[in-house]
Amino acid sequence: MQHARNQALWMMTPLAVVVIALVAFPTLYAYFVSVHDARLSGESASFLGLNNYASMLTNPSFYGSIYYSAKFALFATAAELVVGICLAVLFNRKFRGKGIFTSLLLLPLMVAPSLFALIFRLMLNEFVGIVPYYLNLWGITVNPFDPAWVNVTLVAIDAMQWIPFVFIIVYAGLTTIPEELYEAARVDGANPIQSFFRITLPLLVPTLTIVAFLRAIDSFKIYDMIYVLTNGGPGELTTSVSLFIYKKAFLEGNIGEATAASVLLTFLLAPVLALSMKFIVRRGA
Amino acid sequence: MKMAKQIGFWLLLSFILLLFLFPLLLDFLTSLKTEGDVASFPPKWVFSPTLEHYHNVFSGAGYPFAQFFLNSFFIAAGTSAITVIVCMPAAYAMVRYGVGLRKFFSFIVSLKLLPPIVFAIPYFAMYQFIGLLDTKLGLIWVAVIMNVPLTLMLMVGFIQELPVEIEEAALIDGCSPGSILLRIVFPLLAPGIAAAAILTFIFTWNEFLFVRILSDMNAMTTTVGSTLFIQAYGIRWGDIAAAIALSVLPPLLFTFFVQRYLVKGLSMGAVKG
Known about the structure:
The complex is a heterodimer of chains A (285) and B (273).
Chain A: H1 2-34, H2 51-57, H3 60-91, H4 98-105, H5 113-124, H6 130-137, H7 150-174, H8 179-187, H9 192-220, H10 224-229, H11 241-250, H12 255-280
Chain B: H1 2-31, H2 35-39, H3 52-59, H4 65-97, H5 103-111, H6 116-130, H7 136-161, H8 165-172, H9 177-205, H10 209-214, H11 222-231, H12 237-255, H13 259-266
């Protein structure tokens, strides 16, 4: 048995090496960089102690970007959940061609978010874009990138891509609800709307919790789409925390402060992630 | 009445499908229009298609798009291979010998939940130091760590579903755990492993942030390369549309092979798909 255990440890080696090389080492390196005056130019940096952390903790833009990411995650998740649930309920019946419809509906998920955003730059362009043209026909002349509308635009595009994700998971959850429950409710004189709120929703709570968590965590990271569409503008209006750190490092060239911000963000997210891990790894181990 | 309801349902369904696929459809249409047709107001829905933009993307334009495309392919394939090779024995050891299934496994999975930018900056500083900036190898390394969590999770799930009796019989016959893994477990899990590899391929192909930060012209992939056409001498929408169409094609085609695992793959295995 001892022999077998050695074999097992030996099998773990490749993964352990990869994780040490790719996680442990960069983490230590990040701590090292974050206490130095590291610059993009790569010249040798002087030791600063905790100065980078202090300047991040007193930087209103840093807080603002975290707040923006959180807000974006909240609105995007809410919108995606509502529409995704409606779609799942719509699909939860027998009809021909369901398989092919479902497959096609999942295609947007496979498109790189950066390219999806790029397509929308084309669609929303004021000169060649198809969306402003048809909106104009109906007498709507708003600029989708206007400060008043830009967040609606961004959430809508995120939703276009991720509603199918919510849909497919909720749909999988719906199929596990036994038909007898609905029949019993019908016999008792419940209408479809009552059935939905008294049977479907309560039974979907575990599924919805997981989906909400996954979407919230994921949309909090938002970077690709915003980078391509607005680059965080106008001004700092749409600067998510990922974008804030990116700009710190590569526009201002302050690698030290950007790394400090990354470390702080990790500490901030740790409790949230620990909580969501409980949900996610529940089945595996 | 019933008929009307049926037709209404179908119309609604078709409308929804059209809405969600519209961006993709529009992009394919745009890529086939002449530059004049692209810019025409009102938008043209009927036009004579042209392949000039595809030609431009590969041999005009001023960007080595063919190179970006090959880079994407090479990096995604390399990442897939390494990720599978690293995760497979580890997942087996975790399930059959209970090594590190609790803490180590959770730790690895939690990596996937952090924003990638948190990794990107230290990697940039580190790569600058060891000379891995703008290399395919550098991008593969990063993509491996981003994909290990999901692949490990899928494989642990697959191995847990395998009946242990076959392996026990092989052990009694004198097989070593290593050869059991190679000769029995690997063939049995081949479809699942292929799915994990394809998912890793798709996610790596679609990666943007690390490529943006850790590469320049040499190792750049199509996701970042497509955005370059925007800054180039005025915006040539037809060329961009063609670049996008080419870039989304491989992931879309691959999707059909991993339909069954898609939900699991996209939700990090949190939901039984």
